Amino acid sequence: MSHNLHEISGNYIESMISNVKDMKAIIFDSETQVIFSLEFSKSLALKQEIFLFESIDKIKTDQKLNLNGIFFIRPTTSNLDYLKEILKSTNFKEINLFFTNQLTDDYLQKLAQYDINMQVKNVQEIYLDYYIINSNVFHLNLESCISNLDMKPIERWEPYDSQMFDRVYQGLISACLSNRMKPIIKSVKGSNLCQRLGKKLATFFDDNYEFIRKECGQNFNGILLLYDRKEDPISPLINQWTYQAQLHEILGIKNNVIELKKGDVKDKPEKYVISDVESIDKFYAKYKFADYGTVANAVQQEADKLKNENDMLNKESSIEELRKIIDQLPEKKKESMAITKHYKLFYSISEYVTKHKLMDLSKIEQDISVNDNEKEQYNQIVQIIADPKVQHLDKCKLYLLYMLRYENDPSVNNLKNIMIENKLGDWVSYGDALLKYAGKQKRSLDCFQDKGILSKGKKFIMNALGQGNENAFMQHISYLNGIVERLLKGRSRENETFNINLNSMNEPKVNNLIIFVFGGITFEETRDLTLLGNQLGVNIICGGTNIINSKSFLAEMSMIKEKGNSGSDTALIVG
Asked: Is 138 helix (H, G, I), strand (E, B) or coil?
């Protein structure tokens, strides 16, 4: 069984399409449309005789389509209501239903009742209820989970909150089933949300024993670790220096699309699709975990190589040389477009780094994250707060990092007053929200005090990235990496995690893990865990409610702040 998410989704989609013959239409809902587009291009779909892409809510009952319908949808109540109306008419030659998760008996019975014209030829479950970003990274496209769920007692959850929680539950069922995993479910100890989620998942696997045995086998064959973002509020606040993480932090990646804004704000931004599938984007697949300097050199080398090849075309060459160049033109054109794309993306990153003094700022961020050096760090931050060339967002991030490390020290209050004196009072309130969510009293673990494992982890990551020497910009290693490494080596600490559905004394050794972060995972964490898995020969799949950066994390803090002040759901715009 492959644990490459691209291969898993490709097999599902290929099976879905190939099972339906002749001219086809694919019908999506709002989520499956994105899930499909992340893995399958429209140009490729056209080669499979797919001539219509439509949303399920746009299908009109009087719309006559001489096509075979492929419905790729989630098993939701709203989609069932749409199907009820669609099945009353004869829009399609035939209808094939592919649901992204398990169907209940009641759902199937209603479908049978609604199919009055006997149009439904096929009903299948394909476990693709999540959004694939890398070959081992997925998310559920859910924002505001922290402010909506983590900061409210369960008895105050509104229907929307419960639906959000259920969406996480359904996404994780799909992730486990698509990987044929019967998991040992573990939760970080201090999180009521993760424990609640883990117990609900355990109940599903117990209640569906025969189905799970058929799909995944009889024995436990993997670990599902549920982790809470509040245990590490540091990672989302730190500037990143590897390519994928930096793209997300500076430019923003939304479902593998980057929108590059032009000089004139009235102009539409340029959109660039990125993918770690080597056949689609060789450069990105190779360098997504590479550091800033390595990517700079690689981009320049590829650009120079491209220029030299173009120069050869313009020079007098022998017939044989020209023939070889012409034979390679389609592939060269594809490479040229990819290099041009990454040249533009990296140039935009480089401009931002220089303009906002990120190298200087990052050294202080990294120092705060790994060293107790209060006086010197305080003095450096005071100077930065007074610097008009540093943007307010970066000043706020430094203040928050310092506040988290030295939470109960009088210097934090002094720094707070200096922020206010420099007209940064609005940003100070983010600190109050952050402490309310992830202060020392809210965390069961201490993400600042793991110096031994951080030192070892730092050395390993540097070696894995081909950097034997100390790198001042990449000293911080995510706390989650240490937890998973200890888990895999049988050295877990008592206060870190516990088993929900299996006595740890009877726990078998497994080589497959799904790590899921409630509240969002960072690209730093996915990189650390991927490299750890490669080192230990273990399959690690990383997931989260969403993929976060500092702006999206602070947007959550803004929502907490606003709800705390007024009960309003309106959040400030961070940026």
From this structure: strand
Q: What angle do CA 503, 211, 108 make, to 5 degrees?
A: 135
User: Contact 161/150 with Cβ under 8 angstroms?
Assistant: no
| Global model pTM greater than 0.85 | yes
Spatial distance between the Cα atoms of 215 and 536, rounded to a whole number of angstroms? 27
CA distance 321 to 319: 6
DSSP assignment string, 25-64:
EEEE-HHHHHHHHTT--HHHHHTTTEEEEEEGGG--TT--
Q: For residue 70, what is the DSSP state?
A: E
| Residue 466, helix vs strand vs coil | coil
Assess contact for 427 and 399: CB atoms under 8 A: yes
∠ CA 350-354-360, rounded to 5°: 120
Residue 473, SS3 per DSSP: coil
Residue range 17-64, pLDDT digits in tens: 988 988 899 999 999 999 999 988 766 776 778 888 999 999 887 778
Three-state SS for 456?
helix
Q: Tell me how far apart the alpha carbons of residues 285 and 265 are, in angstroms, rounded to a whole number.
A: 31
Q: Where are the beta strands (DSSP E) in 189-324?
A: 222-228, 257-260, 270-273
258 has which bridge partners?
272
User: Distances in Å between the alpha carbon of 118 and those of 71, 96, 123, 511?
Assistant: 16, 11, 13, 46
E strand residue ranges, 243-385: 257-260, 270-273
Chain position carrying tokens 């549920």: 226
Which residues, at least 6 apart from 530, have a Cβ–Cβ distance to it below 8 Å?
134, 136, 137, 289, 540, 542
Q: Which residue has the tokens 């069984």?
A: 1
Query: Which of 372, 367, 440 has the alpha carbon at shortest distance from 408?
Result: 440
Alpha-carbon distance of 513 to 425, in angstroms, equals: 43
| Per-residue pLDDT reduced to its tens digit, 508-553 | 889 999 999 999 999 999 999 999 999 999 999 999 999 999 999 9
Cα separation of 353 and 357, whole Å? 6
Between helices 392-405 and 358-370, what is the axis angle to 10°?
10
Structure tokens at 203: 């109940």
Torsion of CA 461, 465, 466, 472, to 10 degrees: -70
Q: How far is CA 115 from CA 87, 201, 470, in A?
A: 6, 32, 65
Phi, then psi, of 19 in degrees rounded to 5: -70, -15
